[in-house]
Amino acid sequence: IYLREEIELQNVHEEIVGRSQAMKVILAQVEQVARTDATVLIEGETGTGKELLARAVHRLSARKDRPLVTVNCASLPPTLIESELFGREKGAYTGAMTRITGRFEVADGATLFLDEIGELPQDVQAKLLRVLEEGRFERLGSTKPLQANVRIIAATNRDLAHDVDEGKFRKDLYYRLNVFPIDGPPLRERLEDIPLLVWAFVRQFEKKMGKRIDHIPRKKHGRSAALPLAGQRAGAAKCRRARHDCEQRQNPGGAHTPDGVFRYPRKSQPGGCRTPAHSGCVGEQRLAHYGPGRGR
């Protein structure tokens, strides 16, 4: 149980922007589980930053000096995902001209992030279950067992408990994955983070667009500007959508009027926070330094 006044984060989460209570609870869970080797299941809607949370867990773990190996289970056809995870021997099937090392071998001693785990075919689910239980697997086309010491972090935008009830996902695998669940909150449940996110995106795109932005207009040509738009659009679960809105409105042909309600002062405030209205925010010290792909 996390009480509002008792949540004290021990680390600065540079990639994650937010000061809302929902994000503080999530980041406290990240710090708690990172010190262990427990399997983590991150659930949440598309665009809520599940991969960022996975990277935060890995970065704070004892395996941080090894790479975080990522597999997007939804991007691979069912015929290839088994060899991608477990590897294959030369001649395992027609066209297999070389031996391929699987992601489990690559991630030995490190962390394997299985994104969109709900898209795994049933037969691959059974083999993944064996790896989680025994730490052993075979390359496709081989009978020689291999051992791997891998920490699993899985993520999904599906309701896996519902998929288990419908027979679409193995119950035993679900319980093996759901050792430490983290539920990523959608943006509509942490609206107070929108100003921080928008300014992080603005700073990210300034160099790309070649312009300095000091104001965000409340409205432009009858349409909501980036800041309120990010929280008002239907289904505003997605930080990724807000990031796109900011980039779209920061294009070189766009005009930014000086009637915005949120200002970004040129001079840093005490404590490193560049937005004085949001002092104490998580990750605020790094808002001006985000690179491509961060801050989702």
Strand-pairing-aware structural class: alpha/beta
Average pLDDT, rounded to a whole number, is 77
Q: Helical content, roughly? A: 25-40%
Order of helices and strands: HEHEHHEHEEEHHEHEEEHHE
What percentage of amino acids are in beta strands?
Answer: 5-15%
Radius of gyration: 22 Å
Question: Shape, please?
Answer: globular
Distance between the first and last residues' Cα: 26 Å
Major sheet, described briefly? 5 strands, parallel
Low-confidence stretches: 1-6, 220-237, 254-296
* Count of runs of 4 or more consecutive helical residues: 10
* Spatial ordering of strands, largest sheet: 2-3-6-1-7
Number of strands: 11
Describe this structure in words.
It is a single chain. Helix 1 crosses helix 2 (50-59), helix 8 crosses helix 10 (239-249) and helix 9 packs antiparallel against helix 10. The chain has helices at 21-34, 50-59, 78-86, 103-106, 122-134, 160-165, 171-177, 194-209, 226-232, 239-249; strands spanning 40-43, 68-72, 111-115, 136-138, 145-147, 151-156, 180-183, 215-216, 219-220, 223-224, 262-263. The chain has 296 residues and is an alpha/beta fold. The chain has a 5-stranded parallel β-sheet.
Produce the secondary structure layout:
Elements: H1 21-34, E1 40-43, H2 50-59, E2 68-72, H3 78-86, H4 103-106, E3 111-115, H5 122-134, E4 136-138, E5 145-147, E6 151-156, H6 160-165, H7 171-177, E7 180-183, H8 194-209, E8 215-216, E9 219-220, E10 223-224, H9 226-232, H10 239-249, E11 262-263
Helix pairs in contact: 1-2, 5-7, 8-10, 9-10
